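As a warm-up, study this chain.
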Amino acid sequence: MSSLFPALTHRPGALVALRFGERSLTYAQLAAAAGSAGDRVRGAGRVAVWATPSLETAVGVVGALLAGQAVVPLNPKSGEKELGHILSDSAPTAVLAAPDDELPAAVRGLERIDVDVYGSGPVLDDGSAADDDPALVVYTSGTTGPPKGAVLPHRAIATTLDALADAWQWTGDDVLVHGLPLFHVHGLVLGVLGPLRRGGAVRHLGRFGTEALARELNSGATMMFGVPTMYHRIAEALPEDPALAKALGGARLLVSGSAALPVHDHERITAATGRRVIERYGMTETLMNTSVRADGEPRAGTVGVPLPGVELRLVEEDGSPITSYDGETVGEIQVRGPNLFTGYLNRPDATAAAFTADGWFRTGDMAVRDPDGYVRIVGRKATDLIKSGGYKIGAGEIENALLEHPGVREAAVTGEPDADLGERIVAWIVPADAQSPPGAAELADHVAGRLAPHKRPRVVHCLDALPRNDMGKILKRALSHD
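Now compare it with the structure written out below.
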């Protein structure tokens, strides 16, 4: 296949490719530094990267990919047990890190290779890599059992990034700003490899903040990638920060992913900036499946339409495809296409269970689809599909309705066993005013009036904060009914 990063040799070398804080690299400097790092790991097999939000991580990953090695990004916040599992499962021969990174005991047994971001080595070309050669092994946060390593081949990265370029009209003139971690596909594949494949630039904030974001958007950044937690902070800050509203209003594209962005936050951001945040839908195993297109209708609460090359269908519980899309019928999303991973490392059983006999990947995500093809995620099959009184109800739409209540700052919805209904709907809220939270009856009436009576919560719990992971996703399994 062709190179993942043609811009390294075909773009003017003086153009800035990467900027992290005060440090930056031009395309010529990146080609030299990645060549140096890649030369040191050539033939090493799998290599780990200590994935801090730094130039060293970006250079190390690009260098290893150019040298034809599979990269295992390590989350620096992982506990010792999780790190130990990932290292024993993936068996990397070395770890790439920044010279001043202090590595934990679990990693110290590996050969350490310090990345020199101003080093110079041969300009490498990964064009000899086969489509199905592994590029990344990314460990998914398993809800049951230890994390599984999803093996992402070169073709999955190339086709996803090219499909997004088509959907978002993403070119080498774009400058992306974000503050995402680099051990997930959102921050690493979309947020670093994406701009480099296009020949554009990425400016990483290090730590996300609205002030730093506004500064970058006012000085040439055209796109922002974020997760709902970041956009929620933006929505909260906008009423008191006209400079932030102006900066966001000048952006070409604002993209949210990794979890659903509440409709309430969509509306607040649009009202203040005149810009619509667009959403896309993907997973570690599939990279990107759908997106609202830059030239399409930005419909709040949906993740758009399938990307070029991606087949998507909804299926009933018995696996039979839903043939007529009405915007109401809930089914599990299954996808097929070149964007998919090749399997879970060392887990042929889990890989086989993840696919149907004819090659469709079972995502475990539940959705409805409008007649014109737009997809609306209603939640995870395991945690967000509630069967109550004979209805299949998605937690997501109830959460959106709750967030429209002025007394609710954050909301999560789960189901719990009920002798009469099968499952009753339970709301977990963070009230806007802890001293005066809205009552259960008031919230039930609020939801029933917006959606339908059978979707109202029967139980309401008030919390100081909702449990979330490092990407801002709510950890519903940590919500206890006790």
